[in-house]
Amino acid sequence: MTDAPATAVRRQAAVIFVFVTIVIDVLAMGIIIPVLPHLVLDFEGGNDASAAAIYGYFGLVFAAAQFFFAPVLGSLSDRFGRRPVLLISVFGHGLDFILMALAPSLAWLFVGRMISGITAASFSTANAYIADITPPEKRAQSFGLVGAAFGLGFVIGPAIGGIAGEIDPRLPFWIAAALCLVNAAYGYFVLPESLPPERRSPFDPRKANPVGSLGFLRQHGEVAWLACVSVIFNTAFWVIPTTSVLYAGYRYGWTEGDVGVMLAVIGICNIVVQMVLVKPAVKLFGEPLALRVGLGSAIVGMVIYGLAPSGWIFLIGIVFQSMAGIMGPSLQALMTRRVGTNEQGKLQGALASAIGIAGMIGPILFSQVYAWAISEGAHLHVPGAAFLVAALLNLIALGVAWLATRGERPIADGPP
Q1: C-alpha 393: how far from its chain's center?
Q2: Please, are residues 19 and 145 in contact by the beta-carbon 8 Å criterion?
Q3: Nearest in space to 111 (alpha carbons), one of 99, 123, 120, 95
Q4: How far is CA 296 from CA 2, 34, 61, in A?
Q5: Right CATH for 8-189+209-405 from 1.20.58.100, 1.20.120.610, 3.30.70.100, 1.20.1250.20
Q6: What is the pLDDT of residues 114-128, one digit of tens each?
């Protein structure tokens, strides 16, 4: 007979380890956020509109690499286990940051972002890991913990990056590389495997490519509609990493350090939402309604970002945008219940590919809208136009979410 209390303790310990792994990985990524756009700006001789347009292509190359490689790594994790995929991804991130620290030109930075996209599967594999070890009725709460890990990483990372970037714009890359390599070494000795051999599935090349991976979603019709919500929301979300650093500097005169503090505030609010509000929100509203409430909050946050005449009002928008965090765990929980235990890696790989499409659209869309909005030839000078477009996309996502979940009923909490 299975020892239920011991199983629960092991499950909690594994979730905490994944939490720590994601914190370190996101911390490393967050460190470079305040400085990478300014590095592009320096290469472009200080031209804001030109730098904004070019920076969008950095997001495109990242998302394209993720689009093509995420399903491969997702299927490999179903075949060989989550542990090797996670460790290879984290180690690859470390090497990539070293490459970008030494990059002498924009071309080398592009190569670095492409490698980042390839190794970014650590997040989708981490979600599959959580699905492996968590019963369906507890997944929303566990995915909320993963979301909190993102928030914690973005509290500390951008703050360190902003301070280090004012010392030397290349220093944050070296710090990020060191963190990733230490994390990879730590995981090598400590991380257990979550997918036992009997639950693994053969590697299928038809599903280990973007078209085949998206076909997996098409085979699960209810998942496909929920995946559409994720794609639209993630397309809208790209307005923040693509334009917020340059936007804050252009409109409010914020430095790298100021942007680091702003991103830290976003992380703190995200932690509060994920660790404090997700569980009671899902219990109060149920997963379908929590999904819709989160999307509604995202709409309000984006509108405030786009219209804020001062930095202080911009910060108010962070509160509403952070409330959107209750939708992610709910959406993940709704989708993971619709596929089998031996298909969680394929699901997460397919979602990563779908989100990769969002990542190819969002950076180009928002960078071009922002570049146009601040250009000398713009008919209307609306620096926040990109955020208003993002609000419209979230409104569309809310409509799709309502259609996809209007007949859905929340399931009762099971035992811990």
Answers
A1: 17
A2: yes
A3: 99
A4: 43, 28, 30
A5: 1.20.1250.20
A6: 888 787 656 667 777
